[in-house]
Automatic annotation (TrEMBL):
Keyword Zinc carried by entry: no
Protein name: Rab-GAP TBC domain-containing protein
Gene3D superfamilies noted in UniProt: putative rabgap domain of human tbc1 domain family member 14 like domains (1.10.8.270), Ypt/Rab-GAP domain of gyp1p, domain 3 (1.10.472.80)
Keywords: GTPase activation
Occurrences of domain Rab-GAP TBC (ranges): 1-147
Record's keyword annotation contains Transport: no
Record-linked PANTHER family: RAB GTPASE-ACTIVATING PROTEIN 1-LIKE, RAB-GAP TBC DOMAIN-CONTAINING PROTEIN
Gene Ontology molecular function: GTPase activator activity; small GTPase binding
Length: 150
C-alpha cells in the first residue's frame, strides 16, 4: 500500500519526482512509523504530512516530528483502522457548521453533501492536500510551534 501512495504524494514537486530521493525518504519515514506504531500502521493521508515535513528537514527529524505530531495532537487516533476518532471529528465539525452557518448546513443536507465528503482530508492530511503549499506550510508551522511549546 505504501509503495502505491508514494508516487501520488506531491508528484508536482521536483523533490518527489519518480524514484527521487524525496520518494525514498518518504518511504523510509512512513515504513519506520508503521513499524513504530503497528496499531496504526500506514494510512493514506499521512504521506502528505510526512512529505511536507521532508520538505523542511532530513528524514530522521521528520520521523521524530511525525511521531510527536501523532501523539501530541492525537492524530494517531484518527488513523486507527476503525477511524472512530475521525467520525467524531466529522460530527463535531457538522455541529459547528449547524450552529455557526445553519443555512449552509441545511443546503449541504438538502444536497446530500456529508461533512466527510469535504472535510476528511482536512483532518487526515492537515490541510496539505487542500491548500496551496505555502499556506499549508504556515499551518504546519503553527502545529509545530504548538507541539514545541506544550
Amino acid at each position: 500500500v505504501i509503495l502505491r501512495d508514494i508516487p501520488r504524494t506531491y508528484p508536482e514537486l521536483e523533490f518527489f519526482k519518480d524514484n527521487g530521493r524525496g520518494q525514498q525518504a518518504l518511504f523510509n519515514v512512513i515504513k519506520a512509523y508503521s513499524i513504530h506504531d503497528s496499531e496504526v500502521g500506514y494510512c493514506q493521508g499521512s504521506a502528505f504530512i510526512v512529505g511536507q515535513l521532508l520538505l523542511q528537514m532530513p528524514e530522521e527529524e521528520a520521523f521524530a516530528v511525525f511521531v510527536r505530531l501523532m501523539e501530541a495532537y492525537r492524530l494517531r487516533e484518527l488513523f486507527k483502522p476503525a477511524m472512530t476518532e475521525l467520525g467524531l471529528c466529522m460530527f463535531q465539525l457538522e455541529c459547528l457548521v449547524q450552529e455557526q452557518m445553519p443555512d449552509l448546513c441545511a443546503h449541504f443536507n438538502n444536497m446530500g453533501f456529508d461533512t466527510s465528503m469535504y472535510a476528511s482530508s482536512w483532518f487526515l492530511a492537515l490541510f496539505t492536500t487542500t491548500l496551496p503549499l505555502e499556506l499549508a506550510n504556515r499551518i504546519m508551522d503553527i502545529f509545530l510551534a504548538e507541539v514545541i511549546t506544550n
